[in-house]
């Protein structure tokens, strides 16, 4: 085997790895499109703003994504490491992890229109 053949094998291996990871990503994306929205709501304790945000996002999800969402509520007082990992600077914060692109919304989630636009469920120019 010459030096060029070894380099060629390495090139083919890298190309194969890229194709494998691309295929895996596309498969995961396809499952998400037909699957669920993955949402995380970060709250600070169970104060009025946190309770309001939880109630609002549950209502919005049940109305616009019935059976098509997974919502995880995380209290950053109990799990501060999640706030650090998620780069949460204010609470309540909603993170839409899937489908891409990732989105972050801050506030009580009281403005349904703003939440729908932020989650890519509605565009600003849409009429209800």
Task: Summarize the structure in words.
With 128 residues, the protein is α+β, with helices and mostly antiparallel strands. The protein folds into two domains: 1-34; 36-118, Glutaredoxin (3-Layer(aba) Sandwich), CATH 3.40.30. The chain contains four helices and four strands, in the order αβαβαββα. It has helices at 3-34, 48-64, 80-85, 112-118; strands at 37-43, 69-75, 93-98, 103-106. A four-stranded mixed beta sheet has the order 2-1-3-4. A hairpin with a 4-residue loop joins strand 3 (93-98) and strand 4 (103-106). The model has no long low-confidence stretch (mean pLDDT 82).
List the helices and strands and how they pair.
Layout lengths: L2 H32 L2 E7 L4 H17 L4 E7 L4 H6 L7 E6 L4 E4 L5 H7 L10
Parallel strand pairs: 1-2
Antiparallel strand pairs: 1-3, 3-4
Helix content: 40-55%
Largest sheet: 4 strands, mixed
Radius of gyration, CA atoms, in whole angstroms: 20 Å
Number of domains as seen in the coordinates: 2
| Individual helix count | 4
Secondary structure: number of strands:
4
Q: Could you tell me the strand content as a percent range?
A: 15-25%
Any idea of the CATH class of the largest domain?
Alpha Beta
């Amino acid at each position: 085997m010459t030096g060029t053949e070894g380099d060629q094998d390495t090139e083919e291996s890298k190309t194969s790895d890229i194709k494998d990871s691309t295929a895996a990503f596309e498969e995961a994306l396809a499952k998400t499109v037909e699957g669920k929205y993955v949402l995380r709501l970060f709250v600070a304790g169970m104060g009025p703003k946190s309770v309001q945000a939880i109630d609002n996002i549950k209502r919005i999800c049940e109305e616009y994504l019935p059976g098509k969402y997974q919502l995880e509520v995380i209290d950053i007082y109990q799990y501060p490491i999640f706030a650090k990992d998620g780069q949460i600077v204010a609470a309540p914060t909603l993170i839409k992890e899937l489908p891409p692109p990732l989105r972050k919304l801050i506030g009580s989630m009281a403005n349904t229109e703003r939440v729908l636009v932020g989650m890519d469920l509605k565009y600003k120019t849409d009429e209800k």
